[in-house]
Amino acid sequence: MEISREALARMVDHTLLKTDATQAQVSQLVAEAKELGVYSVCISPSMLPLADDLGHLKLATVCGFPSGNHTPVAKAAEAAESCMLGADEIDMVINIGLLKAGQPEKVREEIEAVRAVTSGLLKVIIEAAALTDDEIVAACQAAETAGADYVKTSTGFHPAGGASAAAVRLMAETVGGRLGVKASGAIRDWDTAQAMVAAGATRLGLSGTRSVLEGGVADGGY
Question: From what superkingdom does this record's organism come (predicted)?
C-alpha cells in the first residue's frame, strides 16, 4: 500500500550536495523544504552555520564525503565541527576499501570515532551498490555495533550507482528495526520512492523532492 504524499515528505532529507552549490541555493533549499513539509535539509559542511530560519526542519550534513577515504581522526574532527556549527545529524561515509579487504573491525572503529563526537543522530553510508550482499551485512553489523542510528545506502556519487530496493531490503533485515534505514541516490520518481519505503526505508535522501512528491521525474543528481 502506498503511503501518502504528506507521510512520504516527512521521511525526506531534502538534499543539496553539489560541489558548485552556493549559499543562495542553500537558502532556496531551506525555503522549499519548509514549503514541502519535509523532515530535514542535508547540505555540505562548508555551508555551516546556517543563518536561515529552519523552523521545524532538522539540519543534516555529511562527513568523509563522498569517497570515505579519510582517516578516522579527520572524519571525527569534521563531524565534531559540524555539530558545533549546528548540525543535528551526521551522514558519514565508511571506507569501503577496508570492508572489501576483510577488515570490518576497522570500519567499526572509524564509525565509533565519529559516534563519540556526534551529539545528534549518526547515519552510516555504506555505498551498497559497490558491495556484495555479505559486505552489506558486515557494514550494517559494524554500524550497529558502533552505535550508529541509521544505515544509509549511498552517497549518490559512486559510479556503481545509488539505492536499490534489494539493498534496502537486505539492510532492513540485517538491522531488524534497531536502526533506521535511509535510501539515497537515484531516487527520482514517486514509484521508486514508494518502492524504497516498501522495502524497509525509514528515511529518503532526495534532491528532486518536489518532482518526486508531485509524481514527476526529477533531474539527475543526488
Answer: Bacteria
